[in-house]
Amino acid sequence: MASVDYTTLAADILEGVGGEKNLVGATHCATRLRLRLRDDAKADTAAVEKLPGVIAVMQAGGQYQVVIGNDVPLVFAGLGKISRFGNEDGSDDAPTQGNLFNRFIEMVSAIFSPILWPLAGSGLLKAFLSMAGTFGWVAPTNNTYVILSAAADALFYFLPLFLAVTAARRFKVNQFTSMAIAGALVYPSIVALGTAGQPVDFGGIPLVMMNYTSSVIPIVVAVWLQGYLERFLLKFLPSALRNFLTPLLTIAIMVPLTLLTVGPATTLLSQGVSAGITAIFGFAPWLAGALMGAFWQVFVLFGLHWGFVPIMTNDLATIGYSLLMAPLVPAVLAQAAAMVAVALRTRSATRRGVAAPAAISGFLAGVTEPGIYGVNLPLKKPFYFGIAGGAVGGAIAAMGGSASNAFVFASLLALPAFTSVGNFVLLLIGTAVAILIAFVLTFIFAPRETADAVKDDAVASPAADAETVPVPAAADTTTGAPAGQRATSVKVLAPVSGPVIALADVPDKVFSSGAMGAGVGIVPEEDAVHSPVSGTVHAVMKTGHAYGIKTDEGVEVLVHIGIDTVQMKGEGFEAAVTRGQRIEAGDLLATIDRARIQAAGYDATTLMVVTNTRNLTAVVPLGETRLTRGAPALDVEL
Fold it and tell me: Which one of 28, 530, 545, 560 is the catalytic residue?
């Protein structure tokens, strides 16, 4: 489909099924667009099947399925450019499977992903400046320090503006309108209203103000709601007025609405949480310390930490110290320790590139955002282990009555502020225990991940004048060809053990017709599905039921677990790889629950198809009636 314009094809398909008004919903799986139509009779199936790039059309399970092949994500992305259906990144519209918290983590991680490197760089600069100020290398009043401090703080201070752009892309709304909403939240006069402590109202309606600088959740929620408002306005406003009235009304409605709802909700909740933990300090300091140590990063994530700031500053002004601040040191450094463990453990150079500098900024400056959003939260387990370490360390620190006599960011460089009040040794012990727990648990139990895919143009040829030592050529375990020689064939291995079914006998029209390519079906006798070849994962369905792998020789293999199991929406499937990762033959692709698949009424037959069969000399099933996982199943002639 190299010559096909995906947006044009998407438009032709949309027209063929009766237009956008006849479309209720759209998703895609590994090979096909899955459309839900209001009226199937309005679809011209014959016309859609004739479109260049369409392999077949079938109707099943209440869906109008247009088979595209490997390029279906690009067609789906094209659909998103011309309609309200589809995502521009070509991903499925269906929400990530799992509980609400997992879906929230996926969303926040996706929104932060585009700004992780600037975030990490800013955090590292902030750490170095903090170290320079602490050791007296540069005075904080020095102009050089002030300018560099502004450079380091800008992204964090104006974080809502950056998130407005990435959230707008995520929720498919006008990003400049989103930036205008975010700009209002951090506008100097709004910030002043949030810190003045005076009653504020909007049109006579009382406003509970908060500080939106550096906040995350308010702008994400605002942009999400913006999507609903924009789509409503675009649908009902006259075309002559739509272009300017839509942003005008969106900004005029969303800014006050956010200030009237998100601000008060966040502020009241944070005040309640802070008041509760402060009260617990009175009768069970260890429990309050454990709660602060465990959940401080969660409070920061939701913007609830602002409720503690007035209490901390008031304590510093009235009694000269704040007990609330001591457990924050174990909390922050535990998360930083988890980042170090990830940096040492992961095989992904990209993840390591974020984790290492993020850990430095966390330890030295207490800036954990780059690591939280780019490392610990996406991987989940490091975040949980950081919480566990923070809880234990926070309890120990609070038991000794440790407190800060200055308002500082919790970090190694801030430790001198804790030497005057309480048992400083217990604070150090608590911090060390928190670091140890988070590091060890993360290093042992966190996902190792796989190495990043190596791009063809990244492989350098040895220098012409380099000394070389002749060595015997090693055999390639997949192709059988000596290293350095171009392979002429590729063996595709069985991903699971079980009886073999000829592709023509598979109860799925698209696969049995050979439209997707040559291959075999295997009835799995185990719940682990492994990679049949070595190569790069170029497609992973969010539902976990299908995986596309491209070998170094250019063979494209699709492993499709079950017949129509996309309908299970991920239940019973757990992916072990991600898109872009390098894997070897025999590596785990996914784990499945065959009992759940059977109970749901679906066939678990695992299909293995070479999708670019037409570009190869031959794809020959080896004729076995039963295969053991790892045994040759297909012989591919290049």
Answer: 560
Q: Write the pLDDT tens digit of every residue in 154-200.
A: 988 898 999 899 888 888 788 899 999 999 999 999 888 876 667 88
How far apart CA 115 and CA 161 sit, in angstroms, is: 11
- Segment among 98-102, 137-141, 427-431 with least mean pLDDT: 98-102
SS3 118: helix
Q: What is the layout of strands, in order, in the sheet containing 588-592?
A: 528-530, 588-592, 573-575
Contact 143, 117 (CB under 8 A): no
Q: In the annotation, is 28 catalytic?
A: no
What is the model's pLDDT at position 91? Answer: 39
3-state class (DSSP) for residue 20: helix
573/592 Cα distance (integer angstroms): 5
Q: What angle do CA 8, 13, 18 make, to 5 degrees?
A: 130
pLDDT in tens, 446-477: 887 766 544 333 333 333 333 333 333 333 44
Query: Phi and psi for 205 in degrees, rounded to 5?
Result: -90, 125
State the DSSP string of 79-117.
HHHHSSSS-TT---SSPPSS-HHHHHHHHHHHHHGGGHH
| CA-to-CA dists, residue 85 to 26, 57, 324, angstroms | 6, 19, 48
Alpha-carbon distance of 8 to 16, in angstroms, equals 12
Cβ 300 vs Cβ 400: under 8 Å = no
Predicted TM-score (pTM) of the model is: 0.52
Burial 404-442 (b: 16+ CB within 10 A, else e): bbeebbbbbbbbebbeebbbbebbbbbbebbbebbbebb
Closest by Cα among 609, 608, 610, 604 to 629: 608
Computed over its alpha carbons, how large is the radius of gyration of the chain?
Answer: 28
**In 90-207, alpha helices (H):** 100-112, 116-134, 143-157, 159-171, 175-185, 188-196
CA distance 111 to 168: 9
Q: Are strands 205-207 and 626-627 parallel, antiparallel or unpaired?
A: unpaired
Burial of 3 (0-12, 13-18, 19+ CB in 10 A): exposed
Instruction: Give the Cα separation of 376 and 587 in Å (integer).
Output: 24
- Packing angle, helices 116-134 and 349-365, rounded to 10: 30
Q: What are phi and psi of 592, to 5 degrees?
A: -130, 165
Q: Are 48 and 16 in contact (CB under 8 A)?
A: yes
Between the alpha carbon of residue 216 and those of residues 167, 231, 262, 367, 437, the distances in Å are: 11, 24, 11, 15, 28
Question: Cβ distance 288 to 272 under 8 Å?
Answer: no
> Which of 28, 29, 530, 545 does the annotation list as catalytic?
29
How far apart, in whole angstroms, are the C-alpha atoms of residue 345 and residue 340?
A: 9
Q: Give the domains, in start order, of the chain with CATH numbers.
A: 6-82 (3.30.1360.60), 100-155+284-449 (no CATH), 158-281 (no CATH), 489-637 (2.70.70.10)
Mean pLDDT of the chain: 83
Q: Is 29 a catalytic residue?
A: yes
